[in-house]
# Entry
Amino acid sequence: MPVVMPASDPPSPPQNGRAHSASSTWDPAAFEAPDYYDLDALLPAEATAIRDEVRTFVTEEVVSVVEGHAQKATFPDHLIPAFADLGLLGPTLPAQYGGGGHSNLVYGLMMQEVERGDSALRSFCSVTGSLVMYPIWQYGTEAQKERWLPQLAQGEAVGCFGLTEPEVGSNPAQMQTRARRDGDDWVLSGHKRWSTNATIADVAVIWAKDEDDVVRGFLVETDRDGVSTPPIDDTWSLRAAVTSEVVLDDVRVPDAHRLPGVEGLKGPLSCLTQARYGICWGTVGAAMACYDAARQHARNRSQFGKPIGGFQLVQERLVEMVQAITKAQLLNWRLGTLKDEDAMRPQQVSLAKRNNCEMALEVARSARQVLGGNGVTSQYPVMRHMANLESVVTYEGTHEIHTLVVGEDVTGENAFT
# Structure
């Protein structure tokens, strides 16, 4: 999407992202996380401590700048070192490779808080940890792990993931990108699209079919001859992200850059399961941000002689929001405990992804209604979250695709074709 703003020329967003602070009834520093069923009592103390550290960072360092970046379609690359310091890049991977060695519950809570700031920043972290570091760790050689994982974890290198193509989205088995063996090398040709980070990436995890139509993964440095990563810069969503294409024109890579530990679609789909898990938590963070803005506004905005939170219809909206968020929080908690017990199934991730994305969009839309006309301005985060969520509900499996995944699981019938 956008190219990165040079460090010497940062954007100048309004303080706290509010262009009209005189009439604002939202204070991001006054954020109160909805926890109606005392979910914190179910979480280990270590998990809540890490979550609170990330929460403070997002409130103090992200919320104040992200609106300006979204308005100008630039990525806040100055935050990458902080992402690394907080352990947001590969949090569940082993410490020997630079990862945090944390539980999946911790990973989920981290992504929740980052997306409370902005979906684009959670996408950066998810792609790095789940779509780039995870396949290197799971399917790569020791040399590949030592070469890339510590750098990616420290934010010293940036990675991207290449699976979706201009004509291939929900059915990756139809991918057109090819990998042809030539002696000790492979020659890659193809076109990937909707690749977060690609324009600023140092390495791309590219999935391609060989001469026998077997899907294989490759680590491709983006400065190799024949690689180009043009940005996709005409979107209304995820404007604080770097979203790009990856064009491969007879790119030669040595066989040592092939991921030897996996063949077939299991490789990319297993990566997507890891990233979708993070999305399940991240969307709850976006919903929390929208709900809190609406709640503050309802308490502070007066009409007809009293705060609008005193009117039944406004209360109904707020109750529906907190009810939906609470159900998603409990769903995520159970999903995370299953994942930490190595008992989670991909179909369970699909159910959470479709539920939580839909939930977050509905919360954002309802919060915008509570905010009235001011809800479409940058003095509140709601419209930005709403626009971002329109991408999140589509990428890494659309609502409809996840419906069919769960539908097949409960009926035993494949409805994809």
Residues 26 and 260 are 52 Å apart (CA to CA). Residues 1-22 have pLDDT under 50 and may be disordered. The chain is about 45% helix and 15% strand. The two ends are 33 Å apart (CA to CA).
